[in-house]
Write a structure and sequence with these properties.
- It is built from 1 helix and 3 strands; from the N terminus they run E-E-E-H.
- It has a 3-stranded antiparallel beta sheet with strand order 1-2-3.
- The protein is an alpha+beta fold and 53 residues long.
- The protein has one domain (2-48).
- It is 15% helix and 57% strand.
- The protein binds zinc ion.
- Zinc ion binds at residues 14, 16-17, 19, 39-40, 42-43.
């Protein structure tokens, strides 16, 4: 999973909490089926803390 930061807040849709977000930081994760999705900073923290993927 890769954390990315933009210079400006950008809108995106978090694939984990299924919410539209606008933030500078987001994480791109690769799923088991080989596709990728984007998750928000909060979800990234939860995943890294050992929560549900
Ligand atoms: Zn999220």
């Amino acid at each position: 999973m890769t954390m990315t930061r933009s210079a400006q807040a950008e809108p995106f849709h978090c694939g984990r909490c299924n919410t539209d977000k606008k933030a500078k930081a987001k994480a791109v994760r690769q799923k088991d089926d080989g596709t990728t999705d984007v998750i928000c900073n909060g979800c990234y923290g939860n995943v890294m803390a050992g929560g549900d993927p």
